[in-house]
């Protein structure tokens, strides 16, 4: 019964979500007109739901295929072998079966393998080393494959942040580089077994990602639902595309500076030639994963995160031009601490984190 979800979480998605399709080819080649068009499409997506898909992203499709092959090899291991690398209390890394180590109800029908990635000044291949140290020689090829995959995801994530900065009218398109260039990002392999009762279970419950940017590739089984226009809609998988969504960290730090103070009142504004609905910007930004009666489903999720001790605040040029800051400054480590130790991430994570942060003495120690 721990896997049975309340009925209000299980409303069917009967429509296909028309996620904006962003062709990055021109932007990656430095074409100014293509960059402007891509930025407009992204700004439109972020003013309504914060989800879009990117194609011609520069990631070799064979690299994606190899990542799936390697994750299959892990999840097909005997359960005792998987449990030998299980996620321990206080750690974010390792294997988790339905997150039963953290939760006792509304358990997700899935297994995950999470590991860190960073590309700081050291030449240590952190992902390869992680697989070597936890799974041994049999998974050396897996470590090398995921090292390359994470490097590609980090590169793509930084490019997406660049075009997001352009769409927001930030003076320097590489403004966010200093936040992420030495940060530790999260790589997660998701495996959703077939489920005999898919009408009462969920692979992942409704939630917002607390991180900055999520780059997701889902296999052809499908199962990703987005809450948009006050209803659940399904995202049709594309083998050549990544689904990108904005997380709470970026929502708060950037959108806060251009949101009106009174929510639920729509006001149309123009920033750098792009239209924004201030109080809808990055709103209703949550999603879920459903399960399939007959087929297993897999997805690859890369979460771009800032360095844990960097203070996150809206760009000053946006602040001085467009409005009053709505939320207090914070660090990624504070939000991570909140979601790991005090709160189960859901569709209201950000609002509850802000309440917690304002009541916490840690806000007094920021530079």
UniProtKB/TrEMBL annotation:
InterPro entries, from UniProt? DIOX_N, IPNS-like_FE2OG_OXY, IPNS-like_sf, Iron_ascorbate_oxido_reductase, Oxoglu/Fe-dep_dioxygenase_dom
Q: In which pathway does it act?
A: Plant hormone biosynthesis; gibberellin biosynthesis; Hormone biosynthesis
Q: What is any one GO biological process for this UniProt entry?
A: gibberellin biosynthetic process
Where on the tree of life does the source sit, at the highest rank? Answer: Eukaryota
What range(s) does the Fe2OG dioxygenase domain occupy?
A: 182-306
Q: Name one GO molecular function term.
A: gibberellin 20-oxidase activity
**Keywords from the UniProt entry:** Iron, Metal-binding, Oxidoreductase
List each coiled-coil range: none
**What Gene3D superfamilies would the database entry show?**
B-lactam Antibiotic, Isopenicillin N Synthase, Chain (2.60.120.330)
Q: Does the keyword Membrane apply?
A: no
One Pfam family hit:
2OG-FeII_Oxy
This protein's cofactor list reads: L-ascorbate
The reaction(s) annotated as catalysed by this protein in its Swiss-Prot or TrEMBL entry are: gibberellin A12 + 2 2-oxoglutarate + 3 O2 + H(+) = gibberellin A9 + 2 succinate + 3 CO2 + 2 H2O
What protein family does this chain belong to?
Belongs to the iron/ascorbate-dependent oxidoreductase family. GA20OX subfamily.
Q: Which PANTHER family match?
A: 2-OXOGLUTARATE (2OG) AND FE(II)-DEPENDENT OXYGENASE SUPERFAMILY PROTEIN-RELATED
Q: What is this protein called?
A: Fe2OG dioxygenase domain-containing protein
Q: Which organism is it from?
A: Trifolium subterraneum
